[in-house]
Write a structure and sequence with these properties.
Number of strands: 16
Shape: elongated
Helix content: 25-40%
Largest sheet: 5 strands, parallel
Distance between the termini: 51 Å
Structural class: alpha/beta
Strand content: 15-25%
Strand order of the largest sheet: 11-6-5-12-13
């Protein structure tokens, strides 16, 4: 009732030992003949079979993580999976779960994603054919960046709330910090019936609730950052999860900030300009400021409408592209000055702590020094000063961060051309299934060398482990292949066997028969005596049988007599 097993050990000179455990193989399954023409590429017919069976396999968005020791092995691994899918009826989520939990995360990794089996097969084929660039997972650390106002969307977080209890519990906890009117308004952003959300008094608290809940969900999956940063109001969420202040105090700060901004007498405007900060600064006039520096040639000017329009016209005259942003106020500009005193009063009532996670400030653009974030005046500057996002990314890169996960409802920051050298992975995407998008983001992080708890991620999905192809090892044989006897060698020994001196002399190109008349008979006799011996790779062996006494009977034995032949 159990597989038979045996141990085999070989002990050599100077400690060269080898040990192998052998296990009885399972009964072989009938092989499926690949639908290929003779001479065609291997696996092509299997891919056709996989595509034919894809229509019978349950659909659903999935991300499949493959890894190997090298690019060629990864291509072979993808080809094996394609052939396997030709005979497997496993669900896409089962394959995703099995790939993630039953296979080692080897250095070279790739993620194949799709909303149906056909798209997944397309991705596998691209990997198998070498059309997908593959590199070894980097050794750098992981950073989180929290997006600011402008990244919001109606329904943000709803898919996570419905799919993951951890997210739902934290979201409800954050919303519970506010009074009923605001609490209800924030929940309407996530669950409807709104079709658009532009009210600053609601947008900023809603973003904060979604981002904190998303962070806690990732934390439950074992995904934690080495460093964090936040764009504008996103920095409050970053500071909260880093431990600068409690959820309760952070919720109060966000609520006061949003309400004061919403009540400003002058709303203001913001315009993105494709130019460097040093180019735009000389054009600024009273009432206008550089609100954000998002890249080497990406700045945002903000302030009073007429003043901003004048600066925008000057920028356009210089040939710089401009784009007005869809925001409710001119943030990070003189428009914010009337609320600073009231906001200072609120900031002084909070309790602050040094961050437990390394932070980079987007006010200074530098790593946070002790005492910076615990000063209420910092959070007042945070309302008014320029968002130095590009400098913050540079600081993250200097801290050996290579991969950045955007914590927010969309890929707003990930789409910026920051020229930072960092690789961005958005946790969520607008108008995409949130649970599937976040799971894909986790697979992308793993491909970048990040560890995640796949068992926690797939908990509650009903995914089960299924059989998968084994690793596509690159076999290399080390034993020697015996050389075949040439036709010339055969002719030579036939002449020797014949004992004809004249023929041998002619074969060897010699003249005279005195030496050969002595040597040839001895050589011929030696050849006949050893006619039953065989030679392989320079070793002679003779096989003989003998009877050995055994318990309860007689055992037949085989003797192999080996002797190195230095002459061969």
């Amino acid at each position: 009732g159990r597989p038979r097993r045996a141990g085999v050990s070989s002990f050599g000179i100077s400690g060269t030992n080898a040990h192998v455990i052998l296990e009885q193989a399972p009964e072989p399954e009938p092989e499926v003949e690949p639908d290929t023409e003779p001479g065609s590429e291997p696996g092509a017919g299997s891919e056709a079979q996989a595509r034919q069976s894809a229509g019978d396999r349950p659909e659903g968005f999935a991300s499949w993580l493959l890894s190997a020791h090298g690019p060629e092995a990864l291509q072979a691994q993808a080809a094996r999976l394609i052939r396997h899918l030709g005979v497997s009826q496993a669900r896409a989520v089962d394959i995703a779960y099995s790939l993630a939990t039953t296979r080692a995360a080897l250095p070279y990794r790739v993620v194949v994603s799709g909303e149906n089996p056909e798209r997944l097969l397309d991705g596998l084929a691209a990997v198998a054919e070498g059309r997908v660039p593959v590199e070894a997972a980097p050794a750098g650390s992981l950073g989180f960046v929290f997006s600011g106002q402008g990244s919001q969307r109606v329904g943000m977080g709803r898919g996570l709330y419905e799919s993951f209890p951890v997210f739902a519990a934290v979201f409800d906890e954050v919303c519970g910090q506010w009074a009923e009117p605001l609490r209800q308004a924030v929940r309407q952003v996530v669950f409807g019936p709104l079709v658009e959300v532009v009210d600053t008094a609601v947008v900023q608290p809603a973003l904060f609730a979604v981002q904190v809940a998303l962070f806690r969900l990732l934390e439950s999956w074992g995904v934690t950052p080495d460093s964090v940063a936040g764009h504008s109001v996103g920095e409050i969420a970053a500071a909260c999860v880093a431990g600068v202040f409690s959820v309760s105090d952070a919720a109060r700060l966000v609520c006061a900030r949003a309400a004061l901004m919403a009540g400003l007498p002058v709303a203001g405007v913001m315009v993105a300009v494709a130019a460097a900060e040093t180019d735009v600064t000389p054009l600024l006039t009273g009432g206008v400021a550089v609100a954000a520096v998002n890249g080497p040639r990406q700045v945002v000017v903000s302030g009073e409408p007429r003043a901003v329009q004048a600066v925008t016209d000057a920028c356009a005259a210089n040939g710089w592209k401009t784009r007005r942003l869809r925001v409710s106020h001119g943030f990070h500009s003189p428009v914010m000055d009337p609320i600073l005193d009231d906001f200072t009063t609120v900031a002084r009532t909070l309790t602050y702590h040094e961050p437990g996670i390394r932070m980079v400030s987007t006010v200074t653009g530098q790593p946070v020094e002790p005492g910076l974030l615990t000063d209420p005046a910092y959070w007042v500057r945070h309302v008014r000063d320029t968002v130095r996002y590009h400098d913050a990314l540079t600081a993250l890169a200097e801290r050996e961060v290579e991969t950045v996960l955007e914590i927010g409802p969309d890929g707003t920051l990930s789409s910026l051309d920051t020229d930072s050298g960092l690789t961005f992975v958005p946790a969520l995407r607008g108008e995409r299934d949130e649970a599937a998008t976040l799971t894909t983001a986790m697979a992308q992080l793993v491909a970048r060398g990040v560890r995640v708890d796949w068992e926690a991620i797939f908990a509650g999905t009903g995914a089960r482990r299924v059989e998968l192809p084994t690793y596509a090892f690159r076999h290399q044989h080390y034993w020697h292949t015996p050389a075949r006897q040439s036709e010339t060698d055969t002719d030579f020994w036939e002449v020797v066997d014949s004992g004809d001196v004249d023929s041998l002399t002619q074969t060897l190109g010699l003249s005279g028969d005195q030496p050969l008349s002595v040597v040839l008979p001895a050589l011929s006799r030696w050849r006949r005596e050893r006619h039953d011996d065989s030679v392989v790779d320079g070793w002679r062996y003779r096989v003989s049988w003998s009877l050995l006494p055994g318990v309860g009977g007689v055992l037949s034995g085989v003797w192999l007599l080996l002797d190195p032949d230095p002459g061969l």
